[in-house]
Amino acid sequence: MVMVKCEKQLHIYNNEEYDDCPVCADSNHDERLFEMLQNEARQKQADKDMVIGAVLCVGGLIASAANFGYVFIGAIVYGGMLFLKGAILSSKAKSVRSKLMEEVDNIIPDKPVPQQNCQAPLQANTKLDQFRIVKALGQGGFDITYLAIDEKNNQQVVIKEYFPRNLAYRSDGDTQVELISQEQNKYQDYENGRNRFEQEAMFLGGFTHSNIVKVLSLFAQNNTCYCVMEYIEGQSLREYQRYVKRPFTEKEIYKYCLPILEALDFIHKNNFLHLNVNPDAILIDTVRDKPILIDFDAVREIIDNSDTYESMLGLYGYSPVEQYSMSGDKTPATVLYAFGMTLYNLIAPEIELPKSTDRQVSIFDDLDDPLPNIREVAKGYSEGLYQLIEQCTQIRQKDRPQSVAEVRKILQSCRSILLTN
Fold it and tell me: What is the sign of the dihedral through the CA atoms of 148, 154, 157 and 159?
């Protein structure tokens, strides 16, 4: 038996019996997940308080024993109180976790995954319509991305296959996508996800923007559907940063991020949101030397209140608090949090971005924000850029800018000031 953590790093399950975490597949998992994330943050803070409290107590006792006077008595008292507070909060957090895990233990999956390798991507040289698979490029929770050849037009393309890992499987050497469970609600979940996948592809295919990846076609095969997109020769902002081995300069920020704001504004004006903005979702097209917005897995229609796990969970460090809850209202301010964290990461790449839920717990408990002040970790940038990052990365949704056009205007002003100096 091999026990591992699920890809959300929240649950332990037997990966010899189940290929995917059965708890994460539970249809009522969203609120439990949000509560568990908040409880984790409280547990971390409580453990931190206990450590600091213990250090203060021990240090105070040693100093007093060394006849340094009574000045350290205050440190001993404060350390003891801090340790006690941490112990109480830790006990409560453990109690909440036990309750949540009892609920988790009651979740019984429909049946074990029927094949040892249920997540197998299509093999090289597999034919799909007029396309031939070259290799798999990546796999997420809801899809698999491939590099392929359009044999009719003799050009490279990227194909995204609808493949929800918690609902479907495919064996090695097979092409057909099968459902793990034949229950009606699981079938409906699969079909709803497929309809959303097709709608997003048609949305992208219906628009033309120089900074948005082009969708070339959409077709059904193997009991699933495929979205064909243009192949872009280049690298993501994150890959570029690793290549140059330094933070982005302010000129590079304006060069690559202002056009992305134009693309996001274009999307919002068409009543859609891109809920997965991050340095990996922006490619630098080396042929045309311009940024391209990709990774539209988490696009959702503003007027549609339904959510998927993808749009809800987003990406560690980049998604705001409201994106971790089904009931959270998703607005352009949600996207701008991710954009602000992207700017932060580009000029301070050595800083690990904390979860917004961890930030929320710390800030609401009057503790230090686990996200360091941008001015302290990234020197030499303009005051306007610092202020914009601070505004976009506010925890409260209402405290952030409410439109992309507003942020774009601020960033254009910062660029103008930089160019005149």
Answer: negative
322: its two tokens: 């409201």
CATH 3.30.200.20 applies to domain 127-230: yes
HEC assignment per residue over 85-113? HHHHHHHHHHHHHHHHHHHHHCCCCCCCC
**Cα 198 to Cα 168: distance, rounded to the nearest angstrom:** 17
Does the structural domain 235-420 have CATH classification 3.40.190.290? Answer: no
**C-alpha closest to that of 145 among 161, 166, 124:** 161
- The domain ranges of the chain are 27-105, 127-230, 235-420
Helix (H/G/I), strand (E/B), else coil: 170 = strand
- Cβ-based burial of 172 (10 A; exposed 0-12, middle 13-18, buried ≥19): exposed
The secondary structure of 198-236 as a DSSP string is: HHHHHHHHT---TTBPPEEEEEEETTEEEEEEE---EEE
Over residues 242-260, the pLDDT tens digits come to 999 999 999 999 999 999 9
Q: What is the pLDDT of residues 360-405, one digit of tens each?
A: 999 999 999 999 999 999 999 999 999 999 999 999 999 999 999 9
Gap between the Cα atoms of 96 and 41, Å rounded: 12
